[in-house]
Specification:
alpha/beta, 22 strands, 31% helix
């Protein structure tokens, strides 16, 4: 019988294992769980075993983020980061300070702004001009679907009133037809292509910074929803991922969803992603410890509602002929999905609007339910047709949703809801209805679109209001007026969606996501029991310790 290196006891232990939902002790050896329960842990405890006293704190499985962009998030941490503040004046002051502190920088680069703080919902180049001067500046929006450029950047890109909108994007213009500095979707590339390229070392640094940040939030695994050259991104993120994986620097369980580049011919794209999977499979690693797998392909089907690019069945309110933007028509999407299925890939489709959702479900079920072991999933599902939820449940499709968005914050109230008809609003972030339809829910953050903090995500999923300390949800409505309160989840459902079911979406449920003998020792220690606190205080829970494959990767000071 093996003996334990370490035993955790002295506080509640929530396992997410339906056979033993709670216990009082868990034992670990060589990074794996070898015993669960006081009696069995006693049997493997020796004088050499380290006993960790939880001192009343609560131990739960490690969180998994089923949809994030850690390269973008990590790069944001390295630039002029606006994520942790909110407001027009606050943005300009931080940008001014950042620019003044870097007088030798040729470009001023940043990210994290929210459009609703600007008059009309979009930023203007003149505001950047006032704080940056004559240097080119580019700031990516928090949702990564738009770029705010100053006049110097537009001039370098040759963007004028006569520049046509590129395929899949839009140059926002004022009433006189002049570019405002707001570039939507693929139009951003007109400017970002000129930004001095980041190096592979920069991307590796961003990924490692992101991993440390995730660990501080209790996250032990993630799915990067777009490994490759994303729309609007100047760098290929695959080589840095491979480099880190070969050096064994991932203390997390990582799934890279390979980006489907719509500008590359079908046959060439299939060959590239198949080759990339082969490269990663050749890396010698233990999945239970951590590392990289690229078993999934990410397809971007539509945009977002806030800029009228999410694909809807019914036109946007006040825009009678605007149904959004589809990146692929049904026939092409079906061909891509069919080709990927033939080659054994799981498929991850971005579908915000109900029209996009319908096409995604059609494509993913064109040959019946996915083969066993596949993790076909649809991300975001902001607005749904309830019949598609039934089809998802019947065919085992995963709803990969972002719980932090499901609240009445000012971003939603000022920017998005005015564009939606009442019936669309009634089918907006309907997590409870997804659950009732039998759809498997997995939680992700879409970081840096929104905070990757799973505790805040749990809070919103249960309360449908903003956490107390979220800077983007400080208004009275966000804090106290639930968004479709009937669509709330229970604490148990929300916790499962961030642990076992997120690990399932990422393809790591066999080794992580629950506390059971044989699985990786992936734990989070919380200051309190999430089932014992008042629901309104869920967002105030704190991560005290994160353990990944038996190693303490974060300890709260």
């Amino acid at each position: 019988m093996p003996t334990a290196d370490r035993v955790y006891r002295g506080g509640p232990i929530i396992t997410m294992d339906p056979e033993v939902p709670r216990t009082t002790a868990v034992a670990v050896a060589n990074g794996r769980i070898i015993a669960v329960g006081a009696a069995d842990c006693d049997d493997v405890t020796t004088p050499a075993t380290e006993v960790v006293d939880l001192d009343g704190r609560t131990l739960i499985p490690g969180f998994h983020d089923a949809h994030a962009h850690p390269v973008l998030g990590g790069m944001g941490l390295m630039g002029c980061n606006l994520d942790d503040i909110h407001g027009f004046d606050a943005y300009l002051e931080r940008i001014r300070t950042y620019a003044e502190s870097r007088p030798q920088a040729d470009w001023i680069i940043g990210s994290g702004w929210y459009g609703h703080v600007f008059e009309g919902g979009f930023p203007h180049r003149r505001d950047l001009d006032t704080v940056v001067g004559d240097r080119p500046a580019v700031f990516t929006s928090h949702d990564a679907h738009g770029v705010w450029a100053d006049t110097a950047a537009l001039e370098l890109a040759g963007i004028t009133r006569d520049t046509p909108d590129p395929d899949g994007g839009r140059i926002v213009r004022d009433a006189d037809g002049e570019p405002t500095g707001m570039l939507v979707e693929s139009a951003a590339e007109l400017v970002t292509a000129l930004v001095p390229p980041t190096t592979a070392d920069d991307v590796e640094h961003a990924l490692l910074d992101a991993q440390r940040y995730f660990h501080s939030l209790g996250i032990v695994g993630w799915q990067d929803a777009g490994v490759g050259v994303l729309t609007g991104s100047p760098h290929d993120t695959f080589p840095p991922y491979v480099s880190l994986a070969r050096r064994g620097e991932f203390s997390s369980k990582v799934t890279g969803a390979l980006w489907w580049d719509r500008t590359v011919p079908f046959a060439d794209q299939i060959a590239t992603i198949s080759d990339r999977r082969d490269q990663v499979e050749a890396i010698d690693s233990d999945r239970a410890v951590g590392g990289l797998q690229v078993t999934t392909v990410k397809i971007m089907l539509d945009g977002v509602c806030e800029n009228l690019t999410g694909a809807l069945k019914r036109a946007y309110r006040g825009h009678d002929h605007d149904h959004g933007l589809l990146m692929f028509e049904a026939e092409e999407l079906n061909e891509i999905v069919g080709g990927l299925e033939e080659r054994g890939f799981s498929i991850h489709i971005h579908a915000v609007g109900d029209r996009a959702l319908e096409l995604a479900v059609d494509a993913l079920t064109q040959n019946g339910a996915p083969a066993p072991g596949r993790r076909h999933q649809i991300a975001h599902l902001d607005i749904v047709d309830r019949t598609d939820l039934t089809r998802m449940a019947d065919n085992g499709l995963i709803a990969n949703v972002q719980p932090l968005w499901a609240r009445n914050d000012s971003v939603l109230v000022d920017t998005k809801l005015p564009l939606l008809h009442d019936d669309q609003q009634a089918n907006h972030f309907v997590f409870g209805s997804m659950r009732n339809s039998g759809v498997k829910l997995s939680f992700g953050s879409d970081w840096p679109v929104s905070s990757p903090d799973p505790i805040w995500g749990l809070h919103v999923a249960v309360n449908r209001t903003a956490p107390h300390h979220d800077p983007h949800g400080q208004d009275d409505v966000a804090q106290n007026d639930p968004l479709l309160k009937e669509e709330a989840l229970t604490v148990a459902e929300a916790l499962r969606a961030y642990t076992f079911d997120a690990a399932y979406a990422n393809g790591y449920d066999d080794v992580s996501g629950s506390i059971a003998v044989g699985k990786s020792a992936d734990f989070v220690v919380l200051d309190r029991d999430p089932f014992a606190v008042v629901a309104a205080d869920l967002g105030d829970l704190t991560v005290q310790m994160t353990v990944s494959a038996g190693d303490v990767v974060y300890q709260r000071s």
